[in-house]
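Q: My labmate handed me this sequence with no annotations at all. I'd like to see what the chain might look like in three dimensions before we decide whether it's worth expressing. Could you predict it?
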Amino acid sequence: MDDFARLLKESWTLVEEHRERLSGHFYARLFLLDPELRKLFPVQMTGQGDRILEAIVTASQTVGDPESFDEYLRSLGRDHRKYHVEAAHYETMGVALLDALRSTAGDGWNLEYDQAWRDAYAAISEKMLAGAAADDNPPYWHAEVLTHERYGADTAVLTCRALQHPLPWRAGQYVSVEVPRHHPRVWRTYSVANAPNDDNVLEFHVRTPPGAGWVSGALVRRVKPGDLLRVAAPMGSMTLDRSSERDVLCVAGGVGLAPIKALVEELASYNRTRWVHVFYGARTAADLYGLAGLQELVASHPWLSVTPACSEDPDFDGELGDISDVVSRYGPWTTHDCYVSGSARMVRATLRVLAEDDVPPQNTRYDTFGNL
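A: Here is what I predict for the chain of 372 residues:
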């Protein structure tokens, strides 16, 4: 397995800096092999069209870890049902992938690399197909928007109710969302911002800064109560370990608050013995849109504390600086279960702080929000 993983990682270095060319060749070859597949993708392929290829590439890098390899791919197979991907399509995608890798890598490609990717893709497709076949849920749920609140120019909090079938999720997980009225066949992942409930209601926190994707823009600026969304199966492992007796550290940046809020809500349903410390950072006080809701939870639960911080608001009456630096000042966190959610930069900085505190890696879970 070590040699297999080495070949995959080694060969990937030949194409990593040419992702755009790899993607273009993959989809051109895919649609040439089966023109009907084009109907499964959005009209405008930029950004969104890369998601299936990105999923395959990500999966190939997990092959060296059999446990995460298995569960990740099974959940990926369940998730890809929303694209209407069928068993026969996997073989076509495999041919297109190998052709794209060979073409993009050029003279550096060899037979060992070729066989490693063939074997990897065979394992990937087998696990994904098994995950899809074992799922009795629908490929996606229709959900009606119930409430929609704007916070400033670029942030919204909305709730929706999944219709017809219960949607099972765990606090800390994320789902893919489509806004079919405005952007059909374009999906974007969002963390669910509340713990599971009997009403089948999900809450989302959405921010659409400059350069954000179409789905986020529609959810913030165009969606209103009564509109219908599509929501796909939940994914993600940033969930609570209910058997743990360790205290809990939660670190949230911006709309990274969403899964953290869900985790705190779940803890509120059963916790009596674990101290829970939430650090919530943003640029300015106006960006701390969820602070009031957190403070309401603090008032009801003596084991919970919330520390807000602003990085670019010198007049803020609280902690100043990047949230990772604030967390460092309050440490060490060596004996805690740690959950981190926010931008890639914020998550990396916080993980460095936790590593310096010698937090065991298995006690840290995180979720990164990209600029999509």
